[in-house]
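pinned: reference chain
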Amino acid sequence: MCIDIHLRRFLFTWSPFLILLSESQPSAQTSTTLNIPAYIEKFSDVAVRHMVEYGIPASITLAQGILESAAGTSELATQANNHFGIKCHDWNGDTYTYDDDSKGECFRKYKDAVESYEDHALFLTKRPRYAGLFSLDKMDYKAWARGLKAAGYATLPVYAEKLVGYIEKYQLFKYDSIAWKMLKNLQTAGDNKTGTNTSVAPSQTAASEATAGLQKTETAHRISVQKMEERRDDLSKTQPRKVEVHNGLRAVYARPGDTQASLAREFEMAEWQIRRYNDLQHGEIPAPGSLIYLEARYEQHPQLEKVSTEQEENWRRLADRYGLKPDALKKLNPQVEEPIPPGVEIILRRL
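pinned: its structure tokens
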């Protein structure tokens, strides 16, 4: 009873100060929310440019940056310039140790945020697990959000919903419309060598964004795209290919311009080996970014017994991902037919 009286006296005397103190200390979530508009303004240009260059929706890039970096305020963003939570994997650059799903995990460290954005684009375009994203409508940000989660980009169960939430709250889809208009203008400029065609009308969503400075921005992006294409051509001709290990097998990623003959010459193999190891037909051109195995694939996976599909799949994509022969994978799963829907259990090895 005495304690209760003293407690009430304390609260009566000090509660105004406690309330004032609590109101003066914003939560981490509030702080992040305050930073989001500035973050969008800072990185919207690079997001638009990456949609033009790589085909990744600008809204998705921005939403991922906001979510993964807490709008540039997270430890990874401030200490390692890592805005997309990309772990080391096959990274050869600087690294940063951070406790994430496990203690002391290795994350990529960049010289600045723009390098992080560039690596994010390359990470999505070069890894086979994300190849299915690029068959989606670039204006369908909801499908891209679901596709990223299904491909395993993040373990957060509501990852797709979080991305869509940011996109719709901050109307990030308007940047998709800007990039789409720029792509249309670039196509028009390609068809009209004089480059003076101005008849392309912006969509309703993009109309409000078609400001006087947009033409200048488009010109800068057009030059950027040309330089990027030239740089890619130079890289494909001059830089040595990095041989990686996937599923215990040596493999490389196909580049634009690769053929069965050129790959065979580069790695001192016979064309039939490139063809057989990768289930290619005579004369079939490897898709840029696809995984090319340099040795025979397995009949059964040496370690994994089974997996469950997280998105619509086909036998070839699954076989590429797990280093198996497509026909062998089909025989392990005679009851499964293409297209393989999400949630189907796929046998990779018989005990």
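why pinned: Residues 192 and 337 are 46 Å apart (CA to CA). The longest helix spans residues 28-54.
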